[in-house]
Each structure stands twice: as C-alpha cells, then as structure tokens.
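Session log. Operator J.P. requested a structure for one protein chain; no other inputs attached. Running the standard single-chain path with token output.
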Amino acid sequence: MEYLHEPADPIAKGILATARQSWSDLFTWKQRVVVSNAYGETTAEWARPAPLRNPFSLLAQLSGRDWLFFIVGFAAWSADAFDFHALSIQQVKLAEYYNTSKTDISTAITLTLLLRSIGAAAFGLAGDKWGRKWPMVLNMLILGVLQIATIYSATFSQFLAVRALFGLFMGGVYGNAIAMALENSPVDARGLMSGILQQGYSFGYVCAACANLGVGGEKDSWKTVFWIGAGVSIGVGVIRCFFPESKQFLEARKEGRNQAHPSAFWKETRIMLRQEWKMCIYCIILMTWFNYYSHTSQDSYTTFMLTQKELNNSGASRASIIMKVGACVGGTIIGYISQWFGRRRTIVVAAIVSGCLIPAWILPQGERSLSASGFFMQFFVQGAWGVIPIHLNELSPPAFRSSFPGITYQLGNMISSPSAQIVNAISESHHVTSNTGKSVEAYGPTMGIATAIIALGIAVTTAFGPEKRGREFEKTKPAGMNVLQEGKRVDDLEADAGAGTPLPSSDLETKKAVQQVEEAPVRSSLEK
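Structure written below.
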C-alpha cells in the first residue's frame, strides 16, 4: 500500500456517520487509512491500493515454514468441512436409514451449527491465550472420535445427540486454522492466501462428494463416508502434533512475558469488548448473512437434484463435485482480486452477480446443465466467501485474531443454523411438477427465493460496513500482554474504596489516569 500523504476526513464516529462514510468510500478508489506518529497521535490519510501482482510472485513470498503452517491450517479446515458435509450430502440415505423425513435429518445440521459458537469461543480464546497448536490437536482428534460415534448411533435420538456434541468441537477449528495459516502471510499475499484457505471448506465438500460417489447409493453406505472423515480428522490432529507452535505467537509471547499476569488476559478481553462491541455486532450480522448464503445454496442442493430434478445418486454426486470445484476456483480468484479491488467492493459485486445467476442455477434439466450452472453459481458464492478470512482478520482486534474471527463466524452460524431445516420444511410442504410430469418437492423455488434475499442482504450490509485492508498487526503481543501491570490497578482502587463507597475526587482522577494508561496499549493495537 502506497501512502499518498494526502489528508483525509477523520474516521467517522457513530453508526450512521460510519455507514455514510463507508458508502462514500466504496466508490473512492483510494483507501482511507489511520496513521500514527511517534507521539501516538493518529490522523487519517489516503493511500493507493497495491497494484494487482503476479500471483506466483505472491506465493513465492511465503517461506517454507510459512507454507507448512498454511498447509496444516488448510488441511484442518478441509477435514472440518468433510466431516460436516458427510452428513449434509447424504440426507436422503440417512432419512431412509433412520426411517424419518429429510427435515428431521436436517435437525442434526441445525444442532451442529447451534453449538459451534460455544466451541469457537472456548477454543478460540484458548488459542489466543496458550497458542494455536494444542487446541487444534484436541479439536481434530475429538472430531474424528465423534464421527465414529455417529456410525454407531443405533437410534435417531442418539444420532442427534452425537451430532450436537460434534458441533461443539467443530466450532473451534476455524479461528485457530485461519490465524495459524494467515498470520505469517506477507501483507500483499493475504488476499490470495485468504481465498485459497477459505476454499478448504469447498475442498472438503468435494472430497465428501467423491467419497459418496465411490460408495454408491445403498442405504448403509453413508457409514463408509463417515469412517473416511474420521480417519482424515484424526490424521490431521496427529500430524499437527509434529509441528511447532506458531513462530509469531511464540515471539510475541516471549516479548511480553515479563508483563504478563494471570488475570491480564481477561482484563484485556473486557477492555476489547468495551471498545469493540459495535464491530463485534457488525461481524456477527455479516457472518449470519454469509452462513445463510452458504448453507441455503449448497446443503440441500444434492437433495434438490435427487428429488426435483430426479437424478440418480451418481449423477447428483458428480454435479455436486463440479459445483464445488467452481467454488474452489472462484474463491481463490476472487479472494486474490480483493487485494487490489478492495474487500468490500469484491464481496458486493460477487453477491450481486450470484443473485443474477439464480434462474440459470435452478431452472435447467439434466446433469450437464445443472453441473455448469452450479459451477458458476458457487464460483461467485464462494468467491464472496473467499474474501472473508482475511476481511475478518483485518477487522479483528489484533491480539484476538484467533478468537474474534472464530466466535463471530460461529455466532453467525448459530443464528443461521436452521437454514437447511427451513429449506427442507418449506420444500416438502410445497410441490411443483417435474420434467417428467411428477409432483415433486419444491426445492428449486425455495432455494432460489431465499438465496436472492440473502445475496441482497450481504451486498447492503457489506456496502455500509467497515474495511481495514492492509492492516498491520504482525507486531502485536498476544492477548493479556498489552495491559501494563505496573502501578495500582483500577480494580485495586475500586476495592480500596470499599463496596458501595464512592471514590474521593483524587482517587477518581487516579482511577481515570490509570484507566487511560492501562487501555492505551490495547487502544493503540486496536486502531492499527
């Protein structure tokens, strides 16, 4: 990013002012940035976005160690997606196996998504406090065990219970995976690497669809896909054991170790939430839209082809594979373009184009036509998603790059958790006439209308939201090490005053001064 040293309007304060400024900046090619001087004073300046560079030269900027961390993060995210989609693409088989409806089976998807936010909070905070390694190892090993437990669920109630527990541990993967994979990535390469990393989700879907294609359409064949998923998850967990902790995390922790205090992490967390609560709410809303976007357009698509389009298991699986190949390609290319075109502009354009493609996505007949339309639809759906990992990382408070993206992402997942269940319930209660003249469940119209509304919601929410492309957070200390430990704490002053006893004016001034000193490092890191 090239600083032009041209003064810009200060960063707006307040929700409406920020929204107006964000909308205006969307149509301004230059980027508004906050610059700090040696005295800690901040001003707003214009900067010229980095030109679009040869992607191979960007890939070459990563060292061998950077690539190892990236590949492990990608593998963990892909295994996580495989485990999830092992269920979503086999709803018809599972409904037959448990002798229930597809809507009931999608209850398992809802439970999984509901509990992912709890896992994201627990393991994300653990990753920020103790490192990226062991929380991820624990996550992957337990996910593998729960995949096996799903296979041995004798009743539908046991099946739902295991999938709910599965969601708890699934939620912890995303935040630690993207923090480990992207935090050492060079600034210019972040957009490209973010796009590649996010497509681990699509790659996991492709692998699950390939496994489903290979095992055939028999009622019990779903178990084989779950066995494969269990092996992949446990394998990634074991492999992660042999890799060291993130070098950046270790160096930052070593630098701030002398300032650390057992309660400092939670004090800094409270300060961050007090300062950044609006950003938290915004990111949760954005992730709610995005998770509806993803799950509505893909979780029931195989079911749509099997029921409304009357394809067989092999044809639907092949079309699903091609659809998600489009997602992998689109996410990588569009994520790469966002480094030059801007995070928000890229998301808005991709969402609008995907909305325009909806008729071509649900109206065709036959495997070839559905494969082609699915490819281009997911090219733009996951293209918008490809920007999200780095966009969330740049919007995150720097010291909370493991917990903040994971928690906001999974809270959005929690809110959107009924998406597949809603699509199935509406589709099964309405019928349309298929190409062969049969009355079939209306998956196409339901998915099309829902996706159109969601794409518009994403475009509007992103257009009026913030962007911090090119943010420098590499030198930030881990959470809990940005708060000064010297002198008397604010909590100590409050305790000295006695419960319910007002502080004397001098102590109030002292409290305010200590509060400012205490929060200064955190505020500085949040504004970078």
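Operator note: The two ends are 14 Å apart (CA to CA).
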